[in-house]
Amino acid sequence: MSNKVIDVSNLTKMFGNFTAVDHITFDVEEGEIFGFLGANGAGKTTAMQMLCGISMPTAGEGTVAGYDIIKENELIKRNIGYMSQKFSLYEDLKVWENIRLFGGIYGLSDKVIAEKTDALLKQLNFQQERNTLVKYLPLGWKQKLAFSVAIFHEPEIVFLDEPTGGVDPAMRRQFWEMIYDAADRGITVFVTTHYMDEAEYCNRVSIMVDGHIDALDSPAALRKQFNADTMDEVFRQLARKAERD
Amino acid sequence: MKTIKFLIEKEFKQMFRNPLIPRMIVMYPIMVLLVFPWAVSFEVKNIKIDVVDHGKSVYSKRLTDKIAASKYFILNDTPPDYQTAMQNMENGYTDMILEIPTTFDKDIVKSSNSKVGVAVNSVNGTQGLLGSNYIMQIVNDFSSELRDELITTVPPKSRASIMNMPQIDIIPHFKYNPGLDYKNFMIPGFMVLLLTLICGILPALNIVMEKENGTINQINVTPVNRIVFILAKLIPFWIVGLVVMFISVSAAFLLYGLWPTGSIIAVLISAIVFIFSISGLGLIISNYSETLQQASFLVMFFILILILLGGMFTPVSSMPSWAQAIAAINPFSYLTKTFRMLYLNGSTLSDVSGNLYAMIIIAIVLNGWAVLSYKKRV
After folding, report:
1. Nearest-CA residue of chain A relative to B7?
2. Is the pTM above the cut of 0.90?
3. Contact A105 B9 (CB under 8 A)
4. Which residues of chain B does A58 touch, with a Cβ-Cβ cutoff of 8 Å?
5. CA separation for the pair B23, B370 (Å, rounded)
6. Per-10-residue mean pLDDT, chain B, length 378
7. Which residues pair with A207 in a beta bridge?
8. Angle, vertex CA A170, rays to CA A165 and CA A171, nearest 5
9. Do A91 and B213 touch (CB under 8 A)?
10. For chain A, which domains are there?
């Protein structure tokens, strides 16, 4: 029996009268690539923020990386990586300085950081850009760097909030190769996306509509269930039911 | 706590890579010490005056010359009548009119007693008040000069009556700032303003900037402790604030010979206590603002309260009681008072300890509020 790294039930978040996330229950297994889909405003980002411990659930319970999401949110943070929709490295720091900062925040020593930085820059083929300010990097490069920084401390889970938004197809392919590499190393990947071809790359996919999870299975099983040829069609069938704008 | 090293390193790199902040850190003390003290002064000079001399006599000419020679007045015109002078004032060519009556000479010689008329444009109240005071001083001076001269010209038997005329001269004795130099009064105040901006306002805007850029979310999902994050924001600005303070104190001495007549250690201690309290205010501002625009607006609001109700320009003791109540919780007011006591009155640490305790209490309240209102999880 495999290990559940995320296990939540009835997770709910309300903003005043508005229920952004409505009693969602699901689990994610270790080493899985879990696609978290949904139309804009379906509640994906809010749900993800609750799992990361920066948003307090209104109701529900669960664990992430073995820690309670209500009480042990600071412990969760030690064991996860996060890369947000909005690009979130420091633009006025150089490439190596960003790596060093986040390495230091997760408690790595100067020596370990220095060694790992060299290895990472070589692996990304970024040696030339070591001293470039992040704001001068092209978007695709920034996203690759942000992902690398998010998993620099070898977390159990990495949360990716629309990591490939606005990135060209070739770069997106390279990005997914990096995601597979991370999964091979045992890092669980929890990813939201609007690209249905990317949904096909996931081991399992959940689709959120109006704060609920309406479907959850492997892409192949979902296509069969909804009698569709592509994930795109599955998504359209579900999104049509949405009442929220 | 090991993470704080990495965070402080980041703050310093960002600070010195910012196109504006390092320049401001240099420019500010220069403005404060080279420009402001000369410009921000309540001393009124160069008041334009019209003298309407109906007497056209030796004495009236001497009075006019005496006024023209004063550094406070510029003789604008000597029009023939009051109407022309009034027109000059209405057109803004002159600020004051002195009218010398036809009988000026005769009155002085006969009764040693004469009257002159003064009209002042009081749109600018300070100038009006000070201007009329200056002219009264000059006229009084002139009359006592004349008395000394005339006494020799009158027959000895009438001398006694003149000698017996009561004459009261007020001789003000200005303590602690003997030259009545406004610079000595303002420079300690500007040093307080400098600490307010560098240690209170800049870190607040800096935190709001991270909110606006979204990078604060990235920090919030890491295990960084909120107190560590805030300290890492504040410490670089505290260091810069103290360095700039050190530069200003030295420059005030080198340029103006202004050195605390009281304890220099007390200057340092009170500056540090103030820094803690003003940082707390900055953090509260940053917690309640989501955007730089909101934060800047709040900053403007608080800066005005701090300065105008803090006794930098006008004495707290002459404010209405509700304004004095605000000054009583205003750290700016305590440090301004403390610095002036240390610079001008020669006070010691124990003399200013009351102000220090007040600032410590304000610091505890503001920082406690700041920590409680900061949320890593919403």
Report:
1. A101
2. no
3. no
4. none
5. 29
6. 89 90 84 81 79 85 87 86 88 87 77 75 76 80 78 66 56 61 83 89 90 88 88 90 88 89 91 92 91 92 90 84 91 93 88 93 92 74
7. A37, A215
8. 50
9. yes
10. 32-53+72-239 (3.40.50.300)
